[in-house]
Amino acid sequence: MRRRTFLRAAGAVAMTLALSSAALAQEAVKVGLILPMTGPFASTGRQIEAAVKLYMQQNGDTVAGKKIQLIVKDDTGVADVTKRLAQELIVNDKISVMAGFGLTPLALAPAPLATQAKVPQVVMAAATATITEASPFIVRTSFTLPQATVPMADWASQNGIKKVVTLVSDYGPGIDAEKAFTGAFTAKSGQVENLRVPLANPDFSPFLQKVADAKPDALFVFVPSGIGAQFMKQFMERGLDKSGVKLIGPGDVTDDDILNGMGDVALGAITTQHYSTAHDSPENKAFVEAFKKANNGMRPNFMAVGGYDGMHLIYEGLKKTGGQGGQALIDAMKGMSWTSPRGPISIDPQTRDIIQNIYVRKVERKDGELYNVEFATIPNVKDPVKAAKAN
Length: 391
Ligand code: PHB
Prior knowledge:
Elements: H1 2-27, E1 29-35, H2 42-59, E2 62-63, E3 66-74, H3 79-91, E4 97-100, H4 104-108, H5 111-117, E5 121-123, E6 138-140, H6 145-158, E7 163-169, H7 172-186, E8 191-197, H8 205-214, E9 218-222, H9 228-237, E10 246-250, H10 256-259, E11 270-273, H11 282-294, H12 302-321, H13 326-333, E12 337-340, E13 343-347, E14 354-366, E15 369-381, H14 384-390
Parallel strand pairs: 1-3, 1-4, 4-5, 5-6, 7-8, 7-9, 9-10, 10-11
Antiparallel strand pairs: 2-3, 11-14, 12-13, 13-14, 14-15
Helix pairs in contact: 2-12, 6-7, 12-13
Bound molecules: P-hydroxybenzoic acid.
P-hydroxybenzoic acid (PHB) binds near residues 103, 104, 126, 172 and 252.
């Protein structure tokens, strides 16, 4: 008799546990964060993961009454791995949204899955203009290379630069940067010669020799985040820093994460971009301080701000949908605007790309550290590639 009562009670407890964990699973909103955490682009993964976790730490892990469960996966920077991980996260983990995507090929690989499964894909890093056209479920919180680059061409032509050699990593964002600069600069009567360097294990020296021979007024450079220090070292070894060739480009080459280790060679470089650790606003001061505190003094770079704002977009989108994913979530994200550590930003409801200020900056030493110091602002810049298509 006693034994039967015990069994009945134990059964009831087991049933309650099963029910409550099922209820919990239903209530949890899973966010799959796919990033290069190892390999040559691990700095991008490290920055974005740290920013996403900071956002969750500051804003709690419950949204619209549902627990946010973050699942971080390392794609090692290989597109086939990104795609497989996205598939597993969608099918097995039943994620509501996927985010991250450290390089253009890594953002493009899972795009068909986002479309098929109707899972919003928040691109926090990759920056080739066309990425948002690969799926109606893609939304971007990073930037596009043409968006950051056209203001550079304007600055160069207004500042006595007539002859430029461009040197870019030979893939999507590099080609975007090269085309955007060349188009805008030649339209203002500038002269341009184009060079492309392989993305994998780049040896810049033969290209830098060509630059030295061409004697341009400026060298325009795009290398992806994390590679700038390698470039700067070879730029200096070739003596180009002393040759009077001005270094210009989108801000990836003077990435805040590694800028301080580059030394004096970086001083005076002029770049255009959407984020600097030194951006002067109360929101950014608070962000930089909290980020450094949580990460042993590591500075946030433009990848971190893409991750932080991407998480904000996910949280605010979920608040609007009451925790629902799918079409409702991507629709909720369209047109959203807020003040980021980088300044005012919004999601273009037509293109799902980010509209943001682009700042002109100069590398300077301040309190013993190197910073990209902003000295001019071009407000509310849309991706020019898609803006041209819309006209
Ligand atoms: C990209 O692959 O889209 C990419 C990566 C790093 C950058 C910019 C663009 O700094």
